[in-house]
């Protein structure tokens, strides 16, 4: 029998990076706070992300089969919080945040991030309330050095 209290307590101990995932399809772009991500392989370089199935970003990602992850720095909690809600393109900004479009994917990459990876989806699994996307890193860039932002650096909880 599943002990719900124990399950939640232990699953909340899984470390979660806080990054911004940019998606694009047919001229529509969006970005969302990504907290479920891990590396899955060295050769080829593969990562896995979890995306809420009922989100617009999920639909864009599923249609395009590509995305970009902008790595946030410790102290950029406000930026992570901004992307809890969908961010529309306004002029040359994503909401109020400067970005550029990735050369490999055309997905938005935040210019104030530590750096980014651009990814091509290799497979997915749609179970539960999130889909899991396995993707190959096809481009990457470092803008500056810094400590990454982790969910544990905030007062927020996501998981369990």
UniProtKB/TrEMBL annotation:
Record Gene3D superfamilies: Electron Transport, Fmn-binding Protein, Chain A
Descriptive protein name: Diguanylate cyclase
Pfam families named in the record: Flavin_Reduct
Flavin reductase like domain boundaries: 11-158
UniProt keyword annotations, A-Z: Oxidoreductase
SUPFAM superfamilies: FMN-binding split barrel
Similarity comment text for this entry: Belongs to the non-flavoprotein flavin reductase family.
Record GO terms (molecular function): FMN binding; riboflavin reductase (NADPH) activity
């Amino acid at each position: 029998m599943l002990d719900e209290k124990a399950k939640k307590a232990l699953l909340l101990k899984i470390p979660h990076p806080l990054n911004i995932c940019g998606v694009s399809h047919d001229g529509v772009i969006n970005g969302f706070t990504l907290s479920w991500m891990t590396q899955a392989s060295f050769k080829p370089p593969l990562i896995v992300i979890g995306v809420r199935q009922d989100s617009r970003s999920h639909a864009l990602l599923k249609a395009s089969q590509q995305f970009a992850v902008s790595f946030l720095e410790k102290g950029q909690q406000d930026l992570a919080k901004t992307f809890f809600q969908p961010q529309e393109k306004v002029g040359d900004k994503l909401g109020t945040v400067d970005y550029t479009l990735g050369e490999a994917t055309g997905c938005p990459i935040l210019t104030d991030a530590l750096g980014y990876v651009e990814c091509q989806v290799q497979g997915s699994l749609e179970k539960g309330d999130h889909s899991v996307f396995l993707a190959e890193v096809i481009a990457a860039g470092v803008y500056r050095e810094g400590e990454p932002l982790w969910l544990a650096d905030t007062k927020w909880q996501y998981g369990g």
